[in-house]
Amino acid sequence: GMSYSQSQSGAYALILGEKLGKRRLPIIIGGFEAQAIAIEIEKMKPARPLTHDLFKSFADAFGVLVREIIINKFLEGVFHAQLVCTFDGRDYFIDSRTSDAVAIALRFACPIYTVEKILEEAGIVVEEGEPGPGKPTSSKKQQPKESKFSSYSVAELESLLTKAIEKEEYEKASKLRDEIKKRKGEEG
After folding, report:
1. Contact at 8 Å (CB) between 138 and 2?
2. Could you read off the pLDDT of 150-171 as tens digits, one per residue?
């Protein structure tokens, strides 16, 4: 999951979850990196390829396979990662920022791993019923915020979404997408 960081302005919290457990690894990433991850998660198609899409096309063209991502270090509060690639029958380990590694992993549909030491040191445990990404932190019922797009019809929103993607305004596009999903959920 991903959410806007409450602690750092302009940053996002990328939350990676343990596949068969309750631990989560919260990683603070920048807005551009969050955008690159969100675009792939939502299967949006930008008018021109983003850097991670270019990397994928380049790797595909030259027969490089990204097999997995390993978050292998946590130094002074910063996560470090490696891409594990195969080319011409040999394995290569390439250092990467964790946010870039995640964006690439999504494009290659490859697994993301870490080591127990990092989960122990930086992981958090989220019990069922506890607040987590996308869950309200208060037991009070929250009033939905009025969207700045609330006066538009779904058709108008879809048109604005297409234009935002063409102009590479991905933050606006994700807000429009959320409004469309919300409306279609209310209608359906």
Report:
1. no
2. 777 777 777 787 777 777 677 7
